[in-house]
Specification:
By secondary structure, this protein is of the alpha+beta class. Helices cover about 15% and strands about 55% of the residues. Helix 1 packs antiparallel against helix 2.
């Protein structure tokens, strides 16, 4: 997973005199700063907006260096204000929990220690849509995000201190409040035919620079959350109705390239996803504001991991 040098921390601690807390503070401070970069990378996974916002569980496999499953959820969306005023607004709230493994070496013996990260992030964007054709738009946006990631490094400090007979009460638990700025560029195609078939194709590149803010500025480190994604959705009419409204089958496929730090933390350069579900037209029902509701089950595959997600979406 994220390759902050945990072994360098271990070597520094083992050279410390058992009665001295100062070297431990220095070593732990170094570890905390390096761990911050990993925590910010995990936060980037929650911060980058996704066209397939959903609840996701990834199986990281049997490799003990990868830790346990990665769990994530994201809620949000975007809209164009009007045809005559092509300003585009976007907002997402993301959550994830990840449990990588910290390896500690002590006199030739290696032990594993879970190091849980829990992250919550809110990301907003504003942009402008350029209508290239009737069905194709170019959408540049600027983004700002605010988030919090909490790491259980206090547990790691206690175990290390117990092994070395050192007092670690002065060491604080690991948590980072972070902010980020960045932008995205999207090329989006949409066409709906008279027989109610509909196709969406989106190519999007998003990049966020994330740093600690506020009281956490002493924690050195930053992260680059970068994602390039090609996403498609195809809607097929079924001829059936639910609540006297037409139902369509929805199929999805996407491929994401992760060149940033969130790709490093997952040990993945790419993720592929396919999905299938259903959509019902609610435009002329008693449900206020909602025009369509969509439920999609998705399967995600990477080079080293696989996962499943469930997405529930509404159009207004």
């Amino acid at each position: 997973m994220f390759r902050f040098p945990a072994f360098a921390l271990t070597a520094s601690l083992l050279c410390a005199a058992p009665a001295a807390a100062g070297p431990l503070d220095d070593a732990y401070g170094t570890f905390l700063r390096r761990n911050t970069e990993g925590a910010l990378a995990v936060l980037g996974l929650a911060a980058v907006p996704s066209e397939t916002a959903s609840a996701l569980v990834l199986d990281t496999g049997s490799n003990p260096n990868r830790g346990n499953d990665f769990q994530a959820a994201q809620l949000g969306g975007g809209f164009r204000i009007s045809d005559d005023f092509p300003v585009y607004l976007e907002g997402y709230i993301g959550y994830n929990r990840y449990d990588p493994v910290l390896l500690l070496s002590d006199r030739g013996q290696t032990s594993q220690m879970p190091l849980k990260w829990t992250s919550v992030a809110a990301t907003g964007g504003i942009g402008y849509e350029f209508d290239l054709t009737e069905h194709l738009v170019l959408r540049p946006q600027v983004h700002i995000m605010l988030g919090r990631t909490q790491t259980d490094v206090s547990v790691a400090a206690k175990v290390i201190g117990d092994r070395l007979g050192l007092d670690v009460n002065s060491l604080k638990s690991g948590g980072v409040t972070a902010g980020g700025v960045g932008g995205s560029l999207t090329l989006a195609y949409n066409q709906r035919w008279e027989n109610d078939y509909e196709l969406d194709v989106t190519l999007r590149h998003t990049q966020l620079h994330i740093e600690p803010i506020g009281g956490d500025k002493d924690l050195m480190g930053s992260a680059e959350a970068i994602t390039t994604a090609l996403w498609t959705r195809y809607r097929i009419p079924t001829g059936y109705e639910l609540f006297d409204r037409p139902v369509r089958v929805v199929t999805e496929a996407s491929l994401s390239h992760l060149p940033g730090d969130q790709g490093t933390i997952l040990d993945e350069d790419w993720l592929a996803q396919i999905g299938v579900g259903g959509e019902i037209d609610l435009a002329e029902t008693w449900v206020p504001w909602v025009t369509t509701t969509r439920l999609v089950f998705r399967y995600t595959q990477g080079e080293h991991l696989r996962g499943y997600s469930l997405g529930l979406a509404c159009s207004f």
